[in-house]
From TrEMBL:
This is MFS transporter. The keyword Methyltransferase does not apply. Keywords: Cell membrane, Membrane, Transmembrane, Transmembrane helix, Transport. It is a multi-pass membrane protein. The keyword Membrane applies. Its main location: membrane. Pfam families: MFS_1. PANTHER family: MULTIDRUG RESISTANCE PROTEIN MDTG, PEPTIDE PERMEASE. The chain crosses the membrane at residues 45-66, 75-93, 99-121, 133-155, 161-186, 207-225, 237-259, 271-289, 295-320, 332-350, 362-381.
Length: 395
């Protein structure tokens, strides 16, 4: 295996590990806080998740701006050591306030991992972007599946806090592997290539705001359906917890299956049509899941939803990458803040819709938001055929 392939494999592994550790406990926070700190108030779980996501919203673009001046690998090393130290602090926490404080500092360090995705895009070049994006989504959803399955085991440990000591050790081991692997890895351009004409700051700002709003709405819609999914399927369809969990994971499985399609259809000239079509199917599948009383139709809706969710997100990310040639890391981290902003707002909208109407409402509202996002994207982003960053004829 060549040095480049080894480097790429390690970077992809870091993404998988980052997502896996992030989702492993997330469905079980109420049980975790009850078992470890004796907190039974579900409101504290909501507060903890809110603070965690707000931290990421703030921290990610800061790492992106810093990456303009330092090598990404060095920023990853800093983030890894911050994570290792804070994991030890979380394991030794005496009360929930200490645990929360160390969590915030951990997430500041972990936010440096958001630089890995654009780094992989940069290293592979324009011709391999769809392959990198497809691989990313395979690993992302694979980590969600594995994390969800292992989270139930973690929460059964006699002292779950001890797990964080183990994670700290793993973090140091991974850092050592990265130090050996990334010796020749360069990510910071010393000069701006003359073959590119960089768009004005005004156009760049407008691009980031408009695509950021689309990303925000897209992730708001697709995360609205998560908080009450189990309650909805158990209450309205009389499913068991296990059956509900399987139904919940269907979209992640379909996202993995979508990989060959993503590689085939997500060429630059097709992104506008692919995104519009996929988002339209998403909207229909979401409303179908909220309006049906048939378990079979619900299952079919989950299948289509997962498949086209991966395609729509991939097309949106590729459009962002294709128009961020000269500041890939900065643009992606800013876009990620809009994404995490959507993750922050989604549970609040879901809670409001459920309390005002019923458990199926988040699906219908999410479908409507997808349709509005589609219209907005067509008007503000995909209406201009000319790329924001154009190549000149100069060599």
């Amino acid at each position: 295996m060549t040095s480049f392939k080894v480097t790429q494999t390690v970077l992809f592994f870091l993404i998988f590990y980052f997502v896996y550790t992030d989702v492993a406990l997330s469905p079980f926070y109420p049980q975790f806080f009850d078992k470890v700190f004796g907190i039974t108030d579900l409101g504290y779980t909501a507060f903890y998740i809110f603070i965690a996501r707000l931290t990421v919203v703030i921290a990610v673009p800061i790492w992106g701006l810093i990456s303009k001046y330092f090598e990404v690998k060095h920023l990853l090393y800093v983030g890894q050591w911050m994570s290792a130290v804070m994991l030890v602090g979380m394991a030794a926490a005496q009360d929930v306030q200490q645990f929360l404080s160390f969590t915030v500092l951990l997430l500041i360090g972990k936010s440096s991992f958001f630089l890995i995705y654009p780094l992989l895009i940069e290293l592979n070049g324009e011709g391999k972007r769809s392959r990198v994006v497809g691989t990313y989504h395979i690993l992302f959803h694979g980590a969600i599946i594995l994390g969800t399955l292992s989270g139930a085991w973690i929460i059964k440990l006699e002292d779950p806090l001890l797990l964080f000591y183990g994670l700290a050790v793993i973090e140091v081991v991974i850092w050592l592997i990265c130090c050996v692997t990334f010796k020749k890895l360069l990510s910071r351009k010393k000069t701006v290539p003359t073959k590119y004409v960089v768009q004005s700051e005004k156009k760049q700002f407008r691009f980031l705001v408009t695509i950021g709003l689309v990303i925000f709405a897209f992730h708001t819609a697709n995360n609205m359906i998560r908080p009450y999914f189990a309650t909805y399927t158990i209450t309205d369809f009389q499913l068991s917890f296990v059956e509900s969990s399987i139904l919940f994971m269907i979209p992640s499985v379909m996202a993995i299956i979508a990989y060959p399609t993503i590689r085939k259809i997500c060429s630059p000239e097709r992104l506008s049509f692919v995104f519009a079509f996929a988002l339209g199917v998403l909207a229909i599948s979401l409303m179908l899941q909220g309006m049906t009383s048939s378990l079979l139709v619900l299952c079919i809706g989950r299948v289509f939803y997962g498949f086209f969710l991966a395609i729509a997100q991939s097309a949106l990310e590729l459009y962002l990458f294709n128009n961020s040639t000269n500041q890939l890391h900065v643009n992606y981290t800013i876009a990620s803040s809009f994404q995490n902003g959507g993750l922050l707002v989604a549970p609040l909208l879901a809670s409001t819709s459920v309390s005002s109407y019923n458990l199926a409402t988040p699906f219908v509202f999410a479908g409507v938001i997808c349709l509005l996002t589609l219209i907005t994207a067509r008007l503000l982003i995909f209406n201009n055929r000319k790329p924001l960053v154009q190549k000149t004829d100069a060599a």
